[in-house]
Write a structure and sequence with these properties.
The structure holds three protein chains of three kinds. Chain A is of the alpha+beta class. Chain A is built from twelve helices and ten strands. Chain A has two domains: 158 residues, no CATH class; 174 residues, no CATH class. Helix content of chain A is 51%, strand content 14%. In chain A, helix 2 packs across helix 11, helix 7 packs across helix 8 and helix 10 runs antiparallel to helix 11. The longest helix of chain A is centred in the last third of the chain and has 35 residues. In chain B, helix 1 crosses helix 8. In chain B, a hairpin with a 4-residue loop joins strand 2 and strand 3. Chain B is of the alpha+beta class. By secondary structure, chain C is an alpha/beta fold. Chain C has a single domain, classed as Rossmann fold. Chain C contains seven helices and ten strands. The interface between A and B is large, with 51 and 55 residues.
């Protein structure tokens, strides 16, 4: 009986080819947009701890590379609050400055408020260094220039995966050094500003703290380098542009589904009535509608495969959730419509 | 004469058409924005750029100091080219071409023009190399010991750099040149900032040249490039697909109300008179759909997310979509009415 | 099979409207009986058949099938009863115009769990009995009025229900076809099966051996 109803439902599909194809296209596109939006959202909002931050670009305007202690102190002050920065070092060339660290390790130097980069928990990290499982050492302390850090393995609860989108791999030796206030100035004092430049370009400052943003852009005073804030349209674009677009599209899609289902129910009222009178129960009648959302799902998956979009991050997850929601919504609507007393009343009226 | 069911269906369609209106406005604005970004502009300037030309002799032309107020004009980029002399001048205090310099590393080997260079008319220049070792060589270390004493070579660029021009061998500090070139390109983030400079140039013998974006062929190329970007292609085609869904929705609306149409017909209604009678409340609602769309426009404008469309452009897009919605409504009605005449309604 | 209605009432309620369709109807029907329910339009005949056929459960009073209260049946049990016990015939034939005769007739067999092969065999046999064997793949809209009514009857008889509920089965037919249809239905009757016909045209039919009941404004008079 169930199989027969499914077969009959499949037969009904031939009458709604254009609907199916258009719905499929809309669903596939929505899935893609949602995946793309979620990706940017994660990058911009979640990684930023949900806070709006300003980023910067750096242009060298002097051949001079000498960094004054004064400048470093200013940077330290800026990074003391509402700001965050980091630098990544590959230690393979045996960088003499950091020779205390194994040569094959990648070093992450982190300064400022780590919570701005979504590092949780951010409290109590300052002045400490951590190594991951691929970095084996028995050393309790790590010494860099005039600085000493306690050196321990990464705590289990510490979420560093959001830091500059790193994928933590177990086979890559990594060291994370969280600098305490004033340590940056000590570490980089009288050094060429190559490393400092990384800190400068990676700096994020809470946008609401405009005084700090201006202090930062005035750091070079156009003598060594020029720092300009980057337009941060992505978060705004996501919140004010893409999110309403996706929401309105979903609403339109749901309304289309409502109209389609109602029209199909009206078209099939006679058929459903006869099936009901001759022993069909609501479950069996519901099954008759199942091939429609299932076919749309299959076609959506097929379309996404044809467009070779499966490798797109988060798309499989988003698509699974959207399609599951779509099937549930479609079946729920049919279920509710068939449960309504008006359906029985209409059967009586027809009968 | 309307049934409750029909009225409810019309309300659903009205909500859908309002969504469709906003979706289309958002999608078309995004697509046009992407197309403008994809437009091939001279030296990779933004689509706001302006181009000027003059036939004046070098002695007659303005100097950079006469055109620019170095204290005020800090958010503009000016490129000057003297085709006969093969000299290019650059004034770029907003570091439009300087930002990527940070990606090279090895600081101290090259630099970009500084504000001091512009203020002090430093004889600094960017050397243009016409053969690059490979296509990726944009910035090459500066030769810090140039042959000509007193001149400062900042960096070298190859053919793949945005500023590259085969006619010039070096890009000079514009304020160090004695006069502007015969051709000028201006750009700024805020188009309003360009107005003052435009007026000065037009008052001093420079003629504005048509922008690259005025060419239809350029637009088609840009549209092609835009469609290669998955996001803009998705937004626009989704808006088009929703139009198709809307047509199908309208067809279903009229088909499921054939009984009503038949009653109108039996009682003397003709196609257009019945259409008018049945849909006039919907049309009023459709006009009201401008309100949420305008509210949306205001919100995005406030957030500076609507830089391409002005109010007039926005209203034009909305009117076109509204017209399309009306057409879909009418055509689907006519189709169902015609089929009803041939087959008779299922009453 | 024994159908019992005791003090059954049915009131239709809308927002500002209330209408009593059946008013304390009591009735008992046994296997083998032929019942004729007559009455003018709007007297409650269809309502009574809907309650008896387990389509409408929104009534007050008691309706039982072989002593089992119909209201205590689950949705699935009611569906099974509609499939195995009752067969309904309607005035407008209630055919699916866009489907073939086979698709129309096989509906009760689907819910009885027959395989497709058995469905084909049973439908073909039933259609042959009603001289419609050649029309298996035709669509009802291509058939004459009499043939369409026979298709509707074939659908009811194919699964051999215990009770046939015929609601105004003759109103769209001419006198000759009425007799034809009636004889088809009567041929089917056995001591285990019963036939209940609701019509407002009782006088024009050659009905003998029927227990005649009259419904007037929802009240039953024997």
């Amino acid at each position: 009986m169930f199989l027969t109803n499914l077969k009959l439902g499949l037969k009904d599909l031939s009458r709604m080819k254009l609907w199916l194809l258009t719905l499929t296209y809309c669903l596939a596109t929505l899935c893609y947009l949602l995946a793309a939006g979620l990706g940017s959202w994660q990058q911009e909002v979640i990684l930023g701890g949900g806070l709006k931050v300003t980023r910067f670009s750096l242009t060298p305007v002097s051949f001079d590379t000498g960094v004054t202690t004064d400048l470093l102190n200013q940077l330290d002050d800026i990074l003391a609050d509402h700001a965050f920065s980091y630098a990544v070092l590959d230690n393979q060339d045996g960088n003499s400055t950091f020779s205390a660290i194994r040569q094959d390790a990648t070093i992450y130097l982190v300064a400022g408020d780590a919570s701005l980069a979504g590092i949780k928990p951010a409290e109590g990290l300052a002045g400490q260094a951590y190594y991951n499982s691929a970095y084996s050492t028995t050393a309790k302390n790590l010494r860099l220039r005039d600085l000493t850090f306690t050196f321990t393995s990464l705590p289990a609860g510490l979420d560093l995966s959001t830091l500059n989108g790193l994928s933590q791999t177990d086979d890559q030796a990594e060291v994370y050094i969280f600098l305490a206030p004033q340590q940056l100035a000590v570490l980089l004092d009288k050094q060429p500003y190559d490393l400092l430049a990384q800190f400068l370009t990676n700096t994020r400052i809470l946008s609401q703290d405009q005084a700090r943003v201006q202090a930062f852009t005035g750091l070079g005073s156009q003598t060594l380098f020029d720092i300009s804030p980057l337009a941060n349209d992505e978060t705004l674009f996501l919140v004010y542009y893409l999110a309403p677009f996706i929401l309105l599209s979903s609403l339109l899609l749901a309304l289309t589904l409502v109209v389609l289902t109602r029209a199909r129910l009206a078209d099939m009222l006679r058929t459903l009535t006869l099936h009901y009178l001759h022993g069909g129960d609501r479950l069996a009648l519901n099954l008759r509608f199942l091939p429609v959302p299932l076919t749309v799902c299959l076609l959506t998956l097929l379309l996404l495969s044809l467009l070779r979009l499966w490798s797109y991050p988060r798309l499989p997850l988003v698509t699974s959730l959207v399609l599951l929601g779509f099937v549930l919504l479609a079946e729920l609507m049919v279920f509710v419509a068939l449960r309504q007393k008006s359906f029985i009343n209409r059967i009586r009226a027809e009968g | 004469m309307q049934s409750m069911r029909f009225r409810n269906q019309l309300i659903l369609c009205l909500i859908s058409s309002t969504c469709l209106l906003i979706i289309t406005a958002l999608a078309s604005q995004y697509t046009v924005g992407s197309m403008l970004k994809a437009t091939d502009t001279p030296f990779g300037l933004s689509y706001h750029y302006l181009e000027y030309k003059t036939d004046q002799s070098p002695a007659e032309r303005l100097s950079a100091d006469q055109l620019l107020d170095l204290q005020q004009d800090t958010d503009v980029t000016v490129i000057s080219l003297d085709e006969t002399e093969g000299v290019m001048g650059l004034y770029d205090p907003r570091m439009y071409y300087g930002g990527v310099a940070a990606a090279i590393g090895l600081y101290g080997n090259y630099r970009y023009f500084s504000m001091d260079d512009y203020r002090e008319h430093t004889d600094a220049y960017i050397k243009v190399r016409h053969t690059a070792d490979d296509g990726s060589s944009i910035y090459i270390y500066a030769d810090k010991n140039p042959y000509v004493k007193g001149r400062i070579e900042l960096l070298q660029i190859g053919p793949s750099a945005l500023l590259y021009d085969s006619r010039v061998d070096e890009i000079d500090n514009l304020t160090a040149l004695s006069n502007l070139g015969s051709r000028l390109w201006l750009d700024a983030d805020d188009p309003a900032q360009l107005n003052a400079l435009s007026q000065t140039l037009e008052a001093n013998g420079y003629r504005r040249q048509p922008a690259a974006t005025a060419d239809l062929g350029t637009w088609f190329t840009a549209l092609g490039q835009t469609f290669r970007q998955a996001r803009s292609a998705s937004l626009l085609t989704l808006a088009l697909a929703f139009n198709l869904l809307f047509i199908l929705m309208m067809l279903v609306l009229w088909q499921s109300n054939q009984k009503l149409l038949y009653l109108h017909k039996q009682n003397g209604g003709r196609c257009f008179s019945s259409f008018r009678t049945l849909v006039w409340p919907y049309l009023i609602g459709q006009l009201l759909a401008f309100l949420p769309a305008l509210a949306f426009y205001g919100l995005l404008r406030q957030q500076d997310l609507w830089p391409v469309f002005g109010l007039a452009d926005f209203l034009l897009v909305c009117c076109l979509q509204q017209l399309a919605i009306f057409l879909w409504l009418l055509l689907s009605f006519m189709l169902v009415w015609k089929r009803m005449k041939h087959q008779g309604a299922k009453v | 099979m024994k159908l019992t209605l005791r003090q059954v009432s049915r009131i239709y309620r809308r927002r500002h409207f209330e209408k009593s369709a059946l008013d304390k109807v009591s009735l008992s029907i046994r296997s083998g009986e032929r019942i004729l329910i007559s009455g003018p339009s709007g007297s409650g005949k269809t309502t009574l058949l809907n309650i008896m056929g387990l389509i409408d459960t929104d009534y007050s009073g008691l309706y039982s099938l072989d002593g089992q209260d119909a209201r205590e049946l689950s949705g699935r049990q009611r569906a099974a009863c509609r499939n195995r016990i009752f067969g309904c015939i309607f005035q407008d034939y209630a055919l699916l115009e866009n489907e073939s005769v086979f698709e129309n007739v096989r509906i009760p067999l689907i819910y009885a769990g027959y395989s497709l092969r058995d469905q084909r065999r049973l439908v073909q046999a039933q259609l042959d009995r009603l001289e419609l064997g050649a029309y298996l793949r035709q669509r009802p809209r291509d058939l004459s009025g009499g043939q369409r009514q026979r298709v509707a009857i074939a659908r009811v008889l194919v699964h051999q229900p215990a009770v046939i509920l015929a609601d105004e089965p003759f109103s769209a037919l001419d006198p000759a076809l009425r007799r034809d249809v009636l004889s088809l239905l009567e041929q089917y009757l056995t001591p285990e099966r019963c036939l209940i016909i609701a019509t407002h045209q009782a006088d024009s039919l050659p009905l003998s051996g029927y227990r005649r009941l009259t419904l007037t404004e929802g009240q039953l008079q024997a």
